[in-house]
Amino acid sequence: MAIESFDLSRALNSQSYAYKCWENFYYGNNTMGIDSKSMGEIKQTWKSEIANWQANALNDENAYEIPDDDFDRAYQNGKNTGKDATGYDGKTGGTIARGVGDAVVGATGAVLPFINTGIDVGTKAVSKAAIKAGGSLTGKAAESAGKTIAKGSNASWIIGAPLNLLQGTLYMAKKPNKTEKEACDVLQDTMAESQAATMSAQEEMAAMGEELMSLSDEAAEYNEEANDQIEEQKTEYDLYMASFNALKEKAESGEALTEDEKALYKELGGLLTEKGENITVIQEDAGDTVTTIYDDMGTYQEGYDYAAETVAEIQGVTDYAASFDKTTQTMCYVEGAAQTLNAGSALINGYKAGAFALSGSWAFGATAWAWAFVAMAAAGFGMSSAGATEQFNWAGEVGAEIKAREATQDLNASTSDMYDTEVDNYDNWMTGVEDLELEIPDEIAPPENTELPGGETTTGEEETAAPAATGFGLAGATEESDKKKEEEPASGTGVS
Asked: Which CA distances in Å does 405 have to 148, 316, 343, 383?
């Protein structure tokens, strides 16, 4: 996740950005690198908001986080994506059992050449089975071999060479770890795609955060401007009302009003009505504007859900890969070592079998049958040498996938952290707009028609009721007040 640079000037002028900095400083490990002095300036500038920020930060429930069920579903989709792409279920039990078995056989073949003891092959079955696997010794020759070995010569090669051939042959037939290695090959591309996806999610969240901060600030600025306009209208209303009441008291005292005073009295009645209407218009316009901004901000929920689903899916596919890639690499090393052992023992067994074949009389073929064991050892050596090379190469290639998977996991973890931070910021920005209030005064009703001396009235215009004190509640303005209140509190209801 890219580290966002800190902009103090912006923090002192943007409430939304100030909250983001404050939250990062206290709850986000200060990844933005904000110094204490700058944070002090931020807190001083926005001291009236700190309590709300703290309440929001300590609230464990966030209505904008993706539900657990949706996260789990996306996680499973990620696992299934990996399985579908590779065609491998990720089960490693058979791989481990096979690798251990091959290692045991390889070790057996390696140890046998060093056993310098007579081997009882009164079991003709052993020699016959061995020769059937790679030579042409049959009948009496096999029986003669058994007698020769029974005399106590170093005849471990008669078991070792067939084992060498058997292990080499089985390797070529089964190609251990091939399926898992090919799955890792496919996953290398999947990891590259996953890294691109999680980086895109980070970029998208960063862009959404900037847009949401602008919208939040726009709503706050509009609310502030509306309150300033309302305050201005109320100030003028109070001035007009003071003049209106002074003329009214003069008239009621029996003192005659001049024509100019009568005209002013009538004009003031209209102006007072106008001011009340102006405040109503300001209230309605501000409510509509802030509601529209709030609704626009609400559409960003989908973007955060998509980011969370991306994190979940990538976590699913990396967990799937991690379930077998390390094991696959280990078993490639195990299998490579087993084939190396087999190839080494095949060299020794082939040498001993050849020495034995040359030790007898060619004329009577007393030991010539041992060349069949030489052939077995040679074949086993060739196949196991190739197998060992292949397995070690595979281990290296699987290692490249493991590195890609680990890099993907690290990157996805940073995306997950960014999501947690950004969705908390989103929650705060939405709450901030919900809590915006218009300070609507109560005592802005137009004066009642009052007769002046001589039967004249203040105005013939229709009365306009004072708007009720209200905030931006998305349902619109509240009902008209039925009566005046003694005080003029600034009150309102938040966006809901």
From this structure: 58, 12, 34, 32
